[in-house]
Amino acid sequence: AMAATALPGPGAVISWDNGDGGNGTISSAGWNDIQAAITNASAGLSTRGTVKLSGDFKRTLNDTAVGSLKITNGVITLSGGWDSGFTAQAGRSVLDVTGTNPDDANNRFRVLYINYTNALLDSLVVSNSVERYNYNGNNPPIQDSASSGAGICIDASGDQATLTNLVVVKNYINGSAGAGISILQADGVRITHCQIVSNSADQGAGLYIAGSGSASVPVVVEDCDFTGNSATAAGASGMGGALFAEEVYAGSKPFNIVVANCRLTGNTAYSGGAMGVNHQYAYADSLTFFGCLVVS
């Protein structure tokens, strides 16, 4: 059973406890209750609300179900680690979406979708999403309109999102990019102290960045570990096991990305196991690496 405080209104701190006796599995109704808490806490738009999670939340879906939790308005913190002021808890809460049949063409289970500014995700494990893009004619492909980002998708209005102390692990996408995290034309996103591990996609398996970061507010990836991510597409399109950046299409934004003090280990791809770049238009793109360790 799920247990929570009453939903008190915008800007509140809402506690959400799995209360499952330890196995972490919740029903579709329980997953939807978490969504209701997120929506309620963020309804004040300019006032930050917080949903603090206790325990693990593992949802096993039917083949045709849609699984993402959505942050599409307001200023929200989703925390599995808590403090300051929420009082204690350490470690991380798990958000896990597992299809009953991972090979089914209808599977399209994203964990988190962000399409509003200043979201903060703290101390979560995001795992086991399965998404398929244009698979056996299954199009439109994925919920929430975005065609990439199986674990976490930060869409065009997700400016200034911060992801910290996350483990993004074993997410899979077929026919597209960004199994772990996808950033689509959003500015000022920060990813810090995260572990991005064993994700699989055609390209940019760990992190896919498309036309994101402006001249003044780059996408910053700092003190993160990218381990064992795999870009699986054959030929030149299979680029960037750990990270992949591109402009996407003529008229899209250039990208501005800073990657600092990260470890990229054992990532694989047809080209650029650690990093792939598709600089196809005459844009003033910027990609800065410093203090990073790259090991094949």
How is this structure best described in words?
The chain is mainly β and 296 residues long. It is 5% helix and 37% strand. It is built from one helix and 30 strands. Strands 1-2-4-7-10-14-18-22-26-29 form a ten-stranded mixed β-sheet, covered by helices on one side. Strands 3-5-8-11-15-19-23-27-30 form a nine-stranded parallel β-sheet. It has a seven-stranded parallel β-sheet with strand order 6-9-13-17-21-25-28. Strand 1 and strand 2 form a beta hairpin. It is globular, with a radius of gyration of 18 Å.
Which structural class is indicated by helix and strand composition?
A: mainly beta
Task: Tell me the strand order in the biggest sheet.
Answer: 1-2-4-7-10-14-18-22-26-29
Shape: globular
The portion of residues assigned to helices is under 10%
Mean pLDDT: 77
Indicate the proportion of strand residues. Answer: 35-45%
Main beta-sheet strand count, sense and barrel state: 10 strands, mixed
Number of helices: 1
What's the alpha carbon Rg, rounded to whole Å?
18 Å
List unreliable stretches of 5+ residues: 1-12, 19-23, 134-145
Number of strands: 30
How far do the termini sit from each other?
A: 45 Å
